[in-house]
């Protein structure tokens, strides 16, 4: 299958491109390399050293014989995107190419506007490119479980049956996004649904949980293929921050009470979910929603688990509660459905102590690269 992986230089996109290439697909990466520029802007870095995209794809070809084509450019530039479609004739378009950080979108007006314009307009361009150049191409779009928020009812997969005044209908599940980033994802979902209805596009919206882990089988083959590990208060997830904090002897900083519960999945499951969606495409005109996660945990539970694993490696971090920079419920009900991907064959890789220990050991190996002042939050929602 001819597959474009947009955002293929990023944390999820890079291992996905390698995995799909290994499965025999003809993979093309489209990326504007902006994720690397965010590091420069924020004076941050990946714990693991990251080779250039050119070095990465060359090493992959050297080791496997598989070529991954690359196009360096922005989805917001429609002429560029149209040319990519003309040259590659994609059968599937995997869309990771969006600004993915909630804190980044909340820095100030400029970052909020950038996040929404970059994400929403770029996604609209993809929809038009599919309509005009590859109408049978299957859009596999990375959404987020954060679109749903934390409602006091079960979170269904995209749709919910409602009874009102004696009548029933199946409607899109209500969204309660928690940042301007999450709002951009909601706008994307609405635009994709509309495009499916009016143009007959086939699309799968993958509402992904928080991704953890470092290596896939492919990224482990050589240091040049290593994936990135983010840990700062803007792009680092809570779990990554706790692991990096443990490595440098810092308290594990839980925001507020720590009862915030979120959905999670291993990076190995991310790449497998993309493959499942590609091999089982949506029907023409169908807007399909999968909740892409395997487990959910509260923030304080994650901190305690990291502390336990750190103790086994003779580290002694303490769990500390700090003022929550976000505006969110710190104790709430959380139960989400995730049956569609499992029904199609997903066999989850769960968050075990060995998985946590593996990431922590990598953090210890590259401890000298960690910028200690970056492990605390710097962006406030208020």
The gist of it:
With 382 residues, the protein is α/β, with parallel strands linked by helices.
The fraction of residues in strands falls at 15-25%
Tally of separate helices: 12
**Mean pLDDT across every amino acid position:** 98
Instruction: Assign the structural class, choosing from mainly alpha, mainly beta, alpha/beta, alpha+beta, or little secondary structure.
Output: alpha/beta
Shape: globular
Q: Quick one: how many beta strands?
A: 14
Largest sheet: 7 strands, parallel
Helix and strand run: EHEHHEHEHHEEEHEEHEEHEEHEHH
End-to-end C-alpha gap: 47 Å
Widest β-sheet, arrangement of strands: 3-2-1-4-5-8-12
Radius of gyration: 20 Å
| Range of helix content | 25-40%
List keywords for this structure.
382 residues, alpha/beta, seven-stranded parallel sheet, three-stranded mixed sheet, 12 helices, 14 strands
